[in-house]
Amino acid sequence: QVLLVFAEEDEQSNGFRWACDKAGFRCNIARTPQSALECFLEKHHDIIIIDHRHSRYFDAEALCRSIRTTKASENTVIICVVQRHTDREESSILPLISAGFTRRYVENSSRMACYNELIQLEFGQVQAQFKLRACNSLFTALEKSQEAIEITSEDHVIQYVNPAFETMMGYQIGELIEKELTEVPINEKKADFLDTINSCIKIGKEWQGMYYAKKKNGDSIQQNVKILPVIGQGGKIRHYVSISRLCNDNNKVEKTCECIQAESQTDTQTCRHKDMRKGSLDVRSTTSRGSDGISQRRRSSMARVHSMTIEAPITKVINIINAAQESSPMPVAEALDRALEILRTTELYSPQLGTKDEDPHTSDLVGGLMTDGLRRLSGNEYILSAKQTHQVAGSLSSPISLNDIPPRITQAMENEEQWDFDIFELEAATHKRPLVYLGLKIFARFGICEFLNCSESTLRSWLQVIEANYHSSNSYHNSTHSADVLHATAYFLSKERVKQTLDPIDEVAALIAATVHDVDHPGRTNSFLCNAGSELAILYNDTAVLESHHAALAFQLTTRDGKCNIFKNMERNEYRTLRQVIIDMVLATEMTKHFEHVNKFVNSINKPLAALEENGNNGDGESIKTVLRSPENRILIKRMLIKCADISNPCRPREQCIEWAGRISEEYFAQTDEERRQGLPVVMPVFDRNTCSIPKSQLSFIDYFIIDMFDAWDAFADLPNLMEHLNNNIKYWKGLDGRNLRVLRPPP
């Protein structure tokens, strides 16, 4: 949350207000010191920006001091806006620091300058304040701990002891802080005991054992002690934490504590070589940015790129390396660059998944779409596809010509280059055969026959064969879905940023992959097939079962008959390249690697492009080209393109979105019915046709899979119309859910 304190509205205040809106920060404006103080005490803002340019309105430094006297301001960042003076020497910032300001902002009403300032504050001082808030909680825990805790510096200077330590040793904290350790551990049975401890902790290992220590009054007490080195800046030991438990005369820890038997273990005590935890505290686990942070879930696309919440462990590693590069000498920075390149091109991006808020709809969607099923013990088998007879070119009716398309179908395809194109109108006009007609038109527009060196009749035969092997009995995974994904793919290929990135062979591969990506889909999920022990699941080892089948069958259908073999005239190496791209894109539609693909796209493409733009390198074509045109990044872009095309239903106009939601729900209902009939595990129990809330299921799917992915894709390809439809559809489903309606549409 941000509080702007400006006596009058001007370009500077408007610049910060715009920046708050763009960054998604909640913003309040105060005109007087009194209203500013009242507003702050009510809202507890994270950032306060005070106008210091015009002293005739109010005393900015006095206001800052007033705010700093409040307990609520302890973790608040306060910025001072000062005038820009070009004709005199730079003034000292010390009076502002003394007044309580965190930093100074020299007036600059540029909107982007204001926005950059806020983003830097968020990822700098504000995040530091979040950590300090967390530290308060941690110190509270230390203060209440029944174990005696002592923290010293690397030079064994005492920096902290808790009340339990004071009680045990008889000292007051003031007698110990900043004092060197003069009382060393004394073990009467082993002279080199101290050397044993030091040899362990100095190499970063934890030591645990028993020794005798002297209290302030001279009494000797036996303690069970654990000493832990803490790795800090530069990878060196910066602190030692000692945790002690008092033992009684029988060498047992008092109350609930357990102690190692001194007689049996003191003489043989050695280092317990437990690996130290090198990672630092993830403050987000103890502070909720959703409740009191300045970031809200929804931001403008470029801002969202910097705060993606899908953060795998490897993403954290990359962020640490990026931060280290800023202060590293050139050879080190270059070495880290090479390390980053390795990290960005290996399979290290899958996040540690958890469901959001334990929502059953989300849990079932994740279980149904992102796992390979629960192994079952019954002997039932679900037979699918492996022995089915597939349609081939010779068994189909003679293909139509592009010039012979009936007027109604031609009219239905008039606006196929627009995002709002209605695929269901084409489905009706073609009697559920939209793929052949739309495919002919889109493939002609992109010059696919010319690239493949094949005739139009071969292409027509191929489209007919592929469409014939989609199951028209499926409510969702039929040739209309394939045509819809083909349309979305063609639309994305027409976007300027995508055209700059991909080669003609990539465009051809994308359109073919979209056409075949669900061919022979049985209307059941991978989890169902694995649970049922289907022949396909056995053939593909329960891994990407359907996606592997779609890709393999597409090439089988294409190459088994020369009449529909669109690849027959291609040069061998070019065909192999095209085939690999098609297979890779079809396999990318498998949902178990959804977050891996999105994570890679964000970290390898979105963030580098955003950094170039924020650093004012919009015109640096070579830098942008380097990001866009690297082979690894082009693969990521193609995967993201087909993934977004495949599940773009929530970004379609409302009526289309509703229709698709009804169709996928019906397909899931049918699967649940069959699972119960066959006694299989029900992988998505919420999809019970008698109890399911379709609005809730749609909201869960959108929240878990769609929002982050399309934020990233929009930031790359610039798709404001899609994001507007997405927001409208979210509001629609929330409206139904808010009325406790479980159906697609409200009653008349």
Kindly list the characteristics that best describe this protein.
Catalytic domain of cyclic nucleotide phosphodiesterase 4b2b; EC 3.1.4.-; 3 domains; alpha/beta; 5-stranded parallel sheet; Beta-Lactamase; 748 residues; metal-binding; single chain; Rossmann fold; 50% helix
Share of residues in helices: 40-55%
Rg, Å, rounded:
33 Å
The secondary-structure class comes to alpha/beta
CATH topology grouping of the largest domain: Catalytic domain of cyclic nucleotide phosphodiesterase 4b2b
Strand arrangement within the widest β-sheet reads: 2-1-3-4-5
Subunit structure: Interacts with RAF1. The interaction promotes RAF1 activity.
Pathway: Purine metabolism; 3',5'-cyclic AMP degradation; AMP from 3',5'-cyclic AMP: step 1/1
Pfam families: PAS, PDE8A_N, PDEase_I
Biased composition (Polar residues): 283-294
Characterise the protein shown here.
There is one protein chain. About 11% of the residues have low confidence. The chain starts with a strand and ends in a 10-residue tail after the last helix. Helices cover 50% and strands 8% of the residues. It is an alpha/beta fold. The chain has 30 helices and ten strands. The protein folds into three domains: 140 residues, 3-Layer(aba) Sandwich (Rossmann fold), CATH 3.40.50.2300; 102 residues, PAS domain (Beta-Lactamase, 2-Layer Sandwich), CATH 3.30.450.20; 339 residues, Catalytic domain of cyclic nucleotide phosphodiesterase 4b2b, CATH 1.10.1300.10.
